[in-house]
Amino acid sequence: MAELPKSSGARPAESKNAIQHYFENHKKVAKSTSLQLLSQPLTTAFTCFVIGIALVLPALLSVLLANIESINEHWDGSPQITLLLKKGVPSLDAGVLAESISQKQSITSSQFIDNEQALSDFKSRFEFTDAIEFLDENPLPHAIIVRLNSTLSAISDIEQLRDSLLTIPEIDSAILDAAWVQRLQSITLLVERAVWVIAVMLSLTVVLVLGNTIRLAIENRKEEIIVVKLVGGTDPFVRRPFLYMGILLGLGSSIIAWCLIHWVIYLLNGPIEALALSYQFDFSLSGLTFLSTLFLLIFGISLGWLSAWFAVRRHLDEIEPS
Amino acid sequence: MIKFEQVKKRYPDGFEALHDVSFHLSRGEMAFLTGHSGAGKSTLLKLIMLMERASEGTVSVGGQNLSNIPRRKIPYFRRHVGVVFQNHRLLFDRSVFDNVALPLEISGMSQRDIGRRVRAALDKVGLLSKEKLNPVQLSGGEQQRVGIARAVVNKPPLLLADEPTGNLDPALSADIMKLFMQFNQVGVSVLIASHDLALIHPLHYRVIELSKGCIISRGKDSAEINKHTGEQNG
Fold first, then answer.
1. Which residue in A6, A223, A232 is closest to B79 by CB distance?
2. Cβ-based neighbour number of residue A280 at 10 Å
3. Contact yes or no for A227 and B89 at CB 8 A
4. What is the interface pTM, i.e. ipTM, of the complex?
5. Other C-beta atoms lying within 10 Å of the C-beta of residue A251
6. pLDDT in tens, B63-99
7. What is the dihedral sign for C-alpha B134, B135, B136, B138?
8. What is the number of CB-based contacts under 8 A between chain A and chain B?
9. Which of A4, A17, A28, A238 has the highest number of chain B CBs within 10 A, making it the mutation to test binding with B?
10. CA distance readout (Å), A115 to A89, A120, A138, A141, A174
């Protein structure tokens, strides 16, 4: 009569078979779980839709964010500072100053605008030229428009550069043409934060919804779990069908989310293109990139796996000695 | 094969199911465990298949002290103990064949070997022709025989049964007992918990009687057996 073996490890000759069996079992479980999910198409579709919609919102916001960032990058005007010179600085000196400023770091070019030229420019654009005729002298100062390197996008860096320019004695004041940069940056930051908050909250929802779905499946198969454990099924063996269930539901949900996102983008694109065109701006929303799609799929699958893992964990202790 | 030494089992709620139980079941021996319900029969079986652990004392199976088996090794231990339940615990979402094949699937046997072993086990319990049926389509006695086939398909050296004839009429019960005796004859150690004294007394096997968590009768010459096999197995 055979001894009760003390160790459980497979003998070396069996290890190849064991690995082969391990993969065979995975294949079998994946297949049977898929069939099981497909045998209840409505329930499965419903679950995937609920989770898919929960995934859509953060994903859609991150798509919008990516689009805003692309506007930011492709804006044709790089940030610029307008320097107004003190009265009485001769235009020759001002020209030399403009030249020397353009040599500075982070500055791509500088343009000197003579006050006479500015005045005539002003007259040609606006209608109250008569009023200006009454003035004894030209009220406009000389100006230098400084274009900044586009790598200098942080508002604090731009402000620092402005302050350093203000130390030049000939310069009276500086107008930072950065309101739009600042606004766009604030909006981007806001949306970014919102995406994170929503993503975290909805991920939690996904884990709870999926966990609940899988918990129901576990309740239906409780007897099976106990029997499997009684005849020597290991924890991973017991867990496997439910992990596959989580993974498949997560995958299905991601695919539904992907379709919904592209549908929403399709719906939004018409109005957005029309709006952009009214600003003489050629722009349309772009969908998920290949990498974002991959990320969405992996994210959905991971959430499914995680939910299943937590849902099963409690049941693994079912008939174990305390 | 099974050795209890001053085993106590106290449940977390304070209920003491077993007090100071000691007995020994030799290799290849078959014995019955009797007692009124609540005497501790099920607890004793649970300790043997590691569904519970002893609060005090030691339980050894096949020379292995069960308190030394960590949780993650328990599944591998259970593969060497066949268990038959009163309600047979069959799975009704799969065929008779798949029910019996389950322990082999779990232990990682190839499909070809599984087919061979499952059919051999079903043949032994006389259900070879019904492998494709769902257990629902079988009678109570047949369902219990499927449960037995599943318990022995792994060829475990030890077979436990908890009231295996609880729901069966006397004729079917006698058939089931005959099956256990056949397994015992080929060397399997068998321990059967049953309160059906009319069924087990005529069989002339050792009877261990529990009452209120204590052994009140150890059966024939248990002291002798203990001494003898104690020396053998140390």
1. A232
2. 6
3. yes
4. 0.85
5. 16
6. 899 999 998 899 999 999 999 988 889 999 899 999 9
7. positive
8. 91
9. A4
10. 11, 9, 7, 5, 16
A223/B187 CB distance under 8 A: no
pTM of the full structure: 0.70
C-alpha torsion B219→B223→B226→B229, nearest 10: -100
d(CA A255, CA A317): 34
- Does the CB of B227 have a partner CB in chain A at under 8 Å? no
Upper half-sphere CA count for residue B228 (Cβ side, 13 Å) = 8
Q: Which helix (H) or strand (E) holds A108?
A: strand A107-113
- Do B7 and B67 form a contact (C-beta atoms < 8 A)? no
Under an 8 A CB cutoff, do B51 and A6 touch? Answer: no
Tens digits of per-residue pLDDT, A101-157?
Answer: 888 877 888 888 888 888 887 777 666 666 777 777 777 888 888 887 766 667 778
B92/chain A closest Cα distance in angstroms: 9
Measured between beta carbons, the chain A residues lying within 8 angstroms of B28 are: 1
Residue that is written with structure tokens 């009023």 in the block: A131
